[in-house]
Amino acid sequence: MCEDNKNIGLPVVTLKDINLSYESEKGTVTALENIDLNISKGEFICVLGPSGCGKSTLLKIIAGFLKPTSGVAKMDDAIIEGADWHRGVVFQAPTLYPWLNIRDNVSFGLKMRKLPKDEIKKLTDKYLEEVGLTEFHKHKPYELSGGMKQRASLARVLVNNPKMILMDEPFGALDALTRQNMQALVRTLWWKTKNTIFLITHDVDEALALGTRIIVMSSRPGKIVKEFNTEFTYRMSAENSDNTRYTSEYMKIREEILDLINHQPYIFKI
Ligand SMILES: Nc1ncnc2c1ncn2[C@@H]1O[C@H](COP(=O)(O)OP(=O)(O)O)[C@@H](O)[C@H]1O
Ligand SMILES: [Mg+2]
């Protein structure tokens, strides 16, 4: 992860009046409308919203996988033109090459970037250790559990020291206990390094546990309906306690978010 904490608070990504429409056989689908969002260095943004509201579309625009139909998406003042390793992406399904062992999966991006061999080894060892997979470095992905595969996917992104990490429901397919462990791991890594994270989830408690800011989106066409500053949950990490979860501040925000999400018209996905 990014070890440089000097620029905390400076803008990393700016989205200005973003609109995105998909053209499909069934016609035009407006997925995002008038999205304005500034993401600063060190923020942990969590995105919540009803299914089909455009969360993944928004992530893909920031990642550079999709170009907005109109509006401007920038990172560090340069227009985002395509995917690159400055923005590492973790999806719900682990994205590992099945024919490579875990070490080679983690070091893949560094090899592509032609870093010196000893540097590749040093970084790969470091991040295998960070995610607790040192012992399993010679295993193939099929030999690992879902949670371990997801940790390998995370290491694969972290090893590149990206400016930002984007995660699309990364723990959605994991069992409750593994999910909690993964949340703790991501929180610790973020806490240690203050990287910038953008994480989509459908779990309001996950968003409250991890995020410094929560963005709630409306059903399609996706707009940002409300933002919540949830930095108070820092205490959860700092004190390593779950008490924040039972404070009135937490309960109040939780209820308001659930209300916002549940009182939106249900949209069938096409
Ligand atoms: N490639 C595509 N072509 C047409 N419609 C799409 C495409 N991808 C997504 N959509 C539609 O755009 C809307 C937003 O999708 P998505 O961003 O995946 O939502 P979310 O991640 O919030 O569930 C949905 O209605 C979805 O069906
Ligand atoms: Mg999605």
TrEMBL record:
Chain coiled-coil ranges: none
GO molecular function: ATP binding; ATP hydrolysis activity
The gene coding this protein: tauB_4
Superkingdom, taxonomy of origin: Bacteria
Organism taxonomic ancestry: Bacteria, Bacillati, Bacillota, Clostridia, Eubacteriales
Record flagged with keyword Hydrolase: yes
Domain ABC transporter residues, every copy: 15-244
Top-level enzyme category: hydrolase
Record key words, sorted: ATP-binding, Cell inner membrane, Cell membrane, Hydrolase, Membrane, Nucleotide-binding, Translocase, Transport
Species per Swiss-Prot/TrEMBL record: Clostridium chromiireducens
UniProt-recorded name of the protein: Taurine import ATP-binding protein TauB
InterPro entries: AAA+_ATPase, ABC_transporter-like_ATP-bd, ABC_transporter-like_CS, ABC_transporter_ATP-bind, P-loop_NTPase
Enzyme Commission designation: 3.6.3.36
